[in-house]
Amino acid sequence: MRPAILGVTTQSVPATYCMSRGNAASVARFSSGPMPNPIVWNVDPVLVRLGPLTVRYYGICFGLALATGFAVWFTRVRRFGESAAFAEQFLYFGVPAVIIGGRLGYCFFYAPQIYLANPLRVFALWQGGIASHGVAAGLAITLWAFSRRHHITWTRLSDYFAPAVALSVGWIRVGNFFNSEVIGRPASVPWAVVFARHDLVPRHPAQLYDLLIGPFTYLVLLAVERRNIRPIGSGLIAGTFLTVYFGLRIFVEQYKDFYVEQLREMPPFRSIEQWLGFPIHTGQWLSVLPVLAGMFLIGRAMRSGVRLSEIARTNH
């Protein structure tokens, strides 16, 4: 065994350890001998303890996500002629949208029966639980409200904002990794990770797969924008973001472990799963609508027939 550094080691994990955790079906395909040096992740999610107060890696990552998103948003709106005051005002709308939308999304997308039976538990933020699809819904509503307030189209604001989301969302997945949550399914790949605070099963580092989606989507958006296909405000950038990001989310979700997800137990979702013959994550179900919305926005933008070179005439 190599010495641990910040709780990270690489060591052989006997398959019998995995079997003892009740994952026999998941690890049956592994050999009965030792696993080939998986990474063992055993980092304390708390960075600093100050009496009853704690500073967690997730909280730091959440702050970095907000800072990154605002920096990209501010740079873009200034580049396209909006004022600094305009950019800063959105901060007062966007931050509550992220927190409220993310929390409500987690409560009612993943455990609706629990929170409908006891609605006050929604406010128990210290118990954790923020859903990215809820964040997306909250931001979409906020962009609409902000566009009405400032007499600017929703598609223009969304084209400003989409790259900011793409580049900042990865920080949340880093926080998930430090928390040893949103873990992957059992795996025998060379980069498998044992999340020792969860169990001793080598798994896909699904958080890191999700992490890669954001920068990749950001690069796609830059490429689309630089090709001068349609002007900012056509909705092409926002549509491309929704289609690429959530399309990749549907793909990556298959590597995540399954949990008790009440939405999947409700009709018609359970009936569709039974008809298809394979399980579908709640995250996959929730990603379908954004992908369809993105495809609609792309089609609408492409039918507009206006090129980016005409932006000067359509910007305001």
Helix and strand topology:
Blueprint: E1 8-10, H1 15-20, H2 24-27, E2 39-41, E3 46-50, E4 53-56, H3 57-79, H4 84-110, H5 112-117, H6 132-149, H7 154-168, H8 170-178, E5 193-195, E6 202-203, H9 206-226, H10 236-252, H11 269-276, H12 282-304, H13 311-314
Parallel strand pairs: 2-5
Antiparallel strand pairs: 1-2, 3-4, 5-6
Helix pairs in contact: 3-4, 3-7, 3-8, 4-6, 7-9, 7-10, 8-9, 9-10, 10-12
Brief overview:
The protein is of the alpha+beta class and 316 residues long. The protein has 13 helices and 6 strands.
Could you explain the architecture of this structure?
It is a single chain. The protein has 316 residues and is of the alpha+beta class. The chain has one domain (57-314). 57% of the residues lie in helices and 6% in strands. It contains 13 helices and 6 strands. It has helices at 15-20, 24-27, 57-79, 84-110, 112-117, 132-149, 154-168, 170-178, 206-226, 236-252, 269-276, 282-304, 311-314; strands spanning 8-10, 39-41, 46-50, 53-56, 193-195, 202-203. Strands 1-2-5-6 form a 4-stranded mixed beta sheet, with no helix packed on it. A two-stranded antiparallel sheet has the order 3-4. Helix 4 (84-110) runs antiparallel to helix 6 (132-149) and helix 7 (154-168) packs parallel to helix 10. The longest helix has 27 residues, at 84-110. The radius of gyration is 22 Å and the shape is globular. The N and C termini lie far apart (63 Å).
* Strand composition percent: 5-15%
- The main sheet orders its strands as 1-2-5-6
Q: Could you tell me the number of beta strands? A: 6
* Secondary structure: helix percent: 55-70%
Low-confidence stretches: 1-6, 12-33, 308-316
Largest sheet: 4 strands, mixed
Tell me the overall shape. globular
> How many domains make up the 3D coordinates?
1
Give the number of helices.
13
Class from secondary-structure proportions: alpha+beta
Distance between the ends: 63 Å
Overall pLDDT, averaged?
84
Q: What's the SSE pattern?
A: EHHEEEHHHHHHEEHHHHH
Using only C-alpha atoms, the radius of gyration works out to 22 Å
